[in-house]
Amino acid sequence: MSNETIYILGIESSCDDTSASVICNGKVLSNVVANQEVHAKYGGVVPELASRAHQQNIVPVVQQAIEQAGITKHDLNAIAFTRGPGLMGSLLVGTSFAKSLALGLNIPLIDVNHMQAHILAHFINEEDSNIPPFPFVCLTISGGHTQIVKITNHFEMEILGETIDDAVGEAFDKSAKILGLPYPGGPLIDKYAQLGNPKAFKFTKPKVGDLEFSFSGLKTGILYFVQKNTKENPNFIKENLHDICASIQYTIIEILMDKLKNTVKQTGIKRIAIAGGVSANSEIRKRLTTAQKYWGWTTYIPKFEYTTDNAAMIAIAGYLKYLNNDYSDISVTAQARLKVTE
């Protein structure tokens, strides 16, 4: 088995990016992502438009991924695709395409849990890759998820804590919206925060369980804070944008770091990984790097291109399942809601 060359095609279509990737024995040969510009003017992802754009993008994206990998479709050993969680219409495009391609090529079909794939992106084999040994803890942070997951092996995961309301990515995007920044606003808050004073304004941290998160109260607090100050000074946002962004980002990252400290205290596991779109945030990356120095943690931070939704993470999860002969039946269906443990 070890000498065999295994090519896995990964297809990701859970939200508004259509992506395809070819992995060979755990190494990425191609990772093509087509972004959908159409949503920016609506200030958020419009599901109906997203699924239509996937239908237009999927064939060229898959073709490009196969060509970039320097192989033909007949070299593929299996097709891995995102089964969920995500937007139903978007998932259906990827699911039905993956099924027909696998049937046409007569090769195994492998369904992948999108949330597991974010975590398994840490196992992509690259020259400088730092692969976490088991067990480790992963903070999964994105627009739809905020959870702390204990990983015992590739497919044995346990949720230790999660948000009781909104996800952290939503907190970033909604705060940006309150400040009048365009969608997606999270990366802009990160950008402006670098120019501001994180202690300029104080926001209250929510009181919830040791490993639980809550962001809805914080969002409301930010809204009231902005409304009150704008009433007194109409130019308040413009004059203080960098400081407001820095203070919001500081508060959110403090919440995340507090929970990780509690997790280490409770589990005794000092290997900490991050995954998901918000792990591209420069401040959380910086804080985790310093945590190694101060608290003796070993931290695992994915490359930028593997943080947001991409098919390389789907392909690596597919590869690990392929090695276990863990294939899907052709009757498998897309699921909009799916826990990381399912």
TrEMBL record:
Substrate binds at T140, I141, S142, G143, G144, D173, G186, D190, N281. Its cofactor is Fe(2+). The keyword Cell inner membrane does not apply. Fe cation binds at H114, H118, D309. Its main location: cytoplasm. Residues 27-315 form the Gcp-like domain. It catalyses: L-threonylcarbamoyladenylate + adenosine(37) in tRNA = N(6)-L-threonylcarbamoyladenosine(37) in tRNA + AMP + H(+). It is found in: Cytoplasm. It comes from Tenacibaculum lutimaris. This is tRNA N6-adenosine threonylcarbamoyltransferase. Required for the formation of a threonylcarbamoyl group on adenosine at position 37 (t(6)A37) in tRNAs that read codons beginning with adenine. Is involved in the transfer of the threonylcarbamoyl moiety of threonylcarbamoyl-AMP (TC-AMP) to the N6 group of A37, together with TsaE and TsaB. TsaD likely plays a direct catalytic role in this reaction. One of its GO terms (molecular function) is iron ion binding. PANTHER family: TRNA N6-ADENOSINE THREONYLCARBAMOYLTRANSFERASE, TRNA N6-ADENOSINE THREONYLCARBAMOYLTRANSFERASE, MITOCHONDRIAL. GO terms for cellular component: cytoplasm. The gene is tsaD. HAMAP family: TsaD. The keyword Cell membrane does not apply.
